[in-house]
Amino acid sequence: MLKRVWDLEVLMFDINLLSKPGLQFEDMPDGTISFIKEKVEIVENDTIVKKEQKVWEKIKIMPTINLYTVIFIAIVGVIFYPMISKNSFSIQIQSERISQDVVIDKVLKVILQSKNDYIIESIQFFNGNILISLTSFDMPLMKLLQKELDVEGNGSVRIFGGNNNYSMIAKLPWEILNNNNSITSPETFFDIVNIGKNVQTIISQDEIAMRGSISDIITIFLQLANAERLQSNEMVIHSIDADSLIFAIKLSN
Amino acid sequence: MPSEGGPLISNFGRIKSTNDFNFKNGNFTDILKHILNESQEELPRIQLSLDYNNIFLSQTNYNSEDFISWQKSQISDSEFGTIFHTYSFPFSNENTLLNIHFSKELKTSIVNSIQDVYGELRTINIGIFSAEIGARQWFHANQLESYVIWKLGKNHVDQLLIVRGGEFQSLVTLKRLNSSVKVLNVIGASTLMDKIVEQINTWSNNDLDEFIHIERVFIYSSEPNSKDLKSVLESEISNVILLNPFEVLDKTTKEKVNPLKGATYAETGVGFRGIDV
């Protein structure tokens, strides 16, 4: 009997308009939005300040010998920092970095979902980082995106604004590979990519800029990914309107 | 609040909003502050049930992403997607979808208000769907083979939510006229709906002892002192039950709640989702 009751419950619509719009599934995560934490954080910050004050008071009464020890450790740290940073620290950071496939997947999702929910101000692919800038008047959506894009968990996604006009800036790790595979000329680019007849193209000395629908631009993006050239050159994506994007690839010298 | 005997109602009531009240102009914050002052909750966790008037409903008869996209382009202009979120719920046969269109601006205003009071918003549900959760949690409607939630509305415009075999069958909007019942809108199947509407018509002619084809009818109105609700109850239809949460829930106060007044709280059902009553 219990099983029957459970079955009946899951067959009814479980409406929660806080969840992500679109087709709703039984196992969709709930969309709880909490601002309780932020309030608590203020309290926690007060505690931290008080703790810091106590520590500082303790430092003040440290014996002189301990102060010398601290100075000695600091000097040793400065002298050996270059060696330490080249060895253990850099290895640790590399190991924590997420794979470029995950980053590509995140960026693709940002482009795909942009049609109705937010505007892509820019997505810039530089050596070191992808910088994503979005605007929307939908704060819950921005919060969801923030969670989605904060892949490293270091808070490198920020939301600004108010009065139903919000901006988001996100930074994802990215590496431009220097492996002689760079796209140096339009000919090389068009050997790899078939842009389709509906895409407008402007070619300049150092850049190929294309304007097309979201699906056209994603097709170009995926062709570059399949040819393993996505990490060959610097690129930029902008929104023009709800249906079209500009995609520019900087030619290497 | 939780207790050994199940949930305990510590406070309840109505708040009179200002005449110019509108979610979109941010007045919801004042209402929330008022509620929180009354309830003395330090960590406010909120479940919201919106009136049906705050959303639009539609139905898609074919469950396919391509078709939905095509249909969307046919029935709405390009601005629609920038103004509304659309949530689509598959019916049990998975071929038909119930679509709920919810204003993005309204959602943002609600979330901003929750932020203003440092609260936590857990759910946004919709009137009669929330009442249906109440029927399951308070009156164990999920153990019935079939049931209807009947909301008596203003100006004799009612809503019916029909459930059979644990599955949502249809949502009906109807208007009771002097000598007949006019169906204004149907989402879902119409088979069972036709029979129930016919029986409501029979009741309006003072000639119904029991709803047949349906095991139980849970009835409520959000209007205080609804004459129509009183009239249905006085008809003593054998399988009609007033959806009054206070009949099954304990309170911290000894205040007695008039059953008709109690039924105006039927749409608080979503707050009891997942709670053993």
Kindly summarize this structure in a few lines.
Chain A is elongated. Chain A has 2 domains: 31-96, no CATH class; 100-250, no CATH class. Chain A has helices at 2-11, 36-60, 64-96, 100-112, 114-117, 139-149, 186-192, 214-226; strands at 22-23, 33-34, 119-125, 128-136, 157-162, 165-174, 200-203, 207-213, 235-239, 244-250.
Structure description:
The complex is a heterodimer of chains A (253) and B (277). Chain A is α+β, with helices and mostly antiparallel strands. Chain A folds into 2 domains: 31-96, no CATH class; 100-250, no CATH class. In chain A, 46% of the residues lie in helices and 23% in strands. Chain A is built from 8 helices and 10 strands. Helices cover 29% and strands 28% of the residues of chain B. In chain B, a hairpin with a 4-residue loop joins strand 9 and strand 10. With 277 residues, chain B is an alpha/beta fold. Chain B has a domain at 131-272. The mean pLDDT of chain B is 86.
